[in-house]
Records
---
Amino acid sequence: MAISSGRYLRPGAVAGGLATLAVGVLLAGCGSSSAASSTNTTAATTTEAPTTTEAPTTTAAPQNVSLQLQTESASGSKEGYPRFVPADITIHQGSPVILTITSVDDGPAPLPASLATYETIQGGTETVDGSPVTSVPNANISHTFSVPDLGVNVLIPPVPKGAKTTTVTFTFTPSKTGTFTWHCFAPCGDGSDGMGGAMATMGQMEGNITVS
Ligand SMILES: [Cu+2]
């Protein structure tokens, strides 16, 4: 597939702040009546005094998931490649997932017009080799890691010339539980349209992501 293009267009480094917003909403109770009319018939007996050390509100630690995007076996065989390893992953709802994808593929595989919807980063924040990115030009997409059911679309550019790997991180929070199929939508497989072979094989350019 991949003839090194030598063109690595790093998208403008726009500070992509984490989308995780902690919104604290304090509802001040019944301020409608005038302050003076404090006819307190209901004694505040129900508010239990915090006698024990208060447990911090569950700020669950981020989950780190690492994927290797391989293009050949250790012995150099290209049979059964490219593929993401592991192909099946399990994550949990309730805390952010930091997906780290390390790719050795130096070739682009631009998406056809019919898949243009997957040309944009969706559902989380991405960095490429440490720099925040908000887009990757289609001509510079090598693979995608896309989970349509979770609204997640990660774009993976080719390895820059002179480098051995490129590392993409993608931080997102799973919106629901279940088992969903992820796909690569870049035509990186066999056949005239690049959609055969690895692209049509579970365990290579598609797999399962389970959110428990
Ligand atoms: Cu691919």
---
Amino acid sequence: MIPTLPLHGGTDSGPWVVHDFSTNANPLGPPPALWRAVQQADRQRYPDPHYRALREQLAAAHAVPPEQILPAAGGAEAIRRLTLAALLQGLREVWVPQPGFGDYAAAAEALGLSVHCYTVWQELLHGRPALIWLCQPCNPSGTRLDSAALARIAAAATATAAGPSIVVIDLAYEPLRLDGEAVALPPSCWQLHCPNKALGLTGVRAAYLVAPAPDDTWARLLTLAASWVLSAEGQALLMHWHDAATLDWLAESRAQLRVWSAQQRALLDGLGWRQRGSCTPFWLAQPPPQSIEGLRAHGIKLRDAESFGLPGWMRIATLTPPAQQALLKALTTLSTQTAITQGFSK
Ligand SMILES: Cc1ncc(COP(=O)(O)O)c(C=O)c1O
């Protein structure tokens, strides 16, 4: 039997895509200075196996001791490693957001853990020890919990009679949050930072975890990591993630994305799409029936949300005005073709 692997937006094995609305990567990336550093990364030597300088730098940005920073070869790798650590710690339940990023459930299922989906955060106050995934803001919905909800979840997770839960806040899209204030992150929760999306460098596999404390879970995560888990390019990316130049560039790119998102939403409104609210440059949208059949042949890709449990819905990310115009043109052509075909069959 061939196992089912998680489905993702972005590059696939199909025909070349000119305008990829299916990826959540920032279309404005990468920032020039950071990109130069990645290109100049020293590939002729191993990185420091302990990543000391990198951990010190990230630790200073997060105001934690350097040992609490754990580099990872991307968020996907960190999710697998954390799930394995949870299993070794004796946890048997994993709680994942619905709809949510498919890798949380895939990692749990691969290890025989039981997966529970939650649609509202109050379901997480069940009082049983578990690995709990929170995604802030959530992929694919672009929604997020407030500080009070996070505090309640964290408090409930530490108060379980049968041992504590591991709560992980996946902040992959926090740097691309287009509105609202940053929420307070409970100190007892793990944080997962995956900057490659905000930087438009998803091909560079680099992320890091911030551990709440140097506890048993932390020790497992450390010892489960492959040696040199982060490549030289990944190390360079993370080294420059908190640079002033990178942060300024990010702020500018959020301002631009706000404008483009509003334009794209207006365009889709005009075509009769239903669209959900979101604080990110991507959101869930439902096209009129049959209106997108054949879109790929026009070099345009959307992320079908069926695998998120939302048949008929798409996740669509903000792209540049020329890409939006190409989408409009393709959708108009498809609708004209459908009208002609329906006319013939009458
Ligand atoms: C919410 C979320 N977390 C983590 C990841 C993993 O990203 P990466 O492995 O590229 O760091 C993704 C990728 O799409 C994601 O959407």
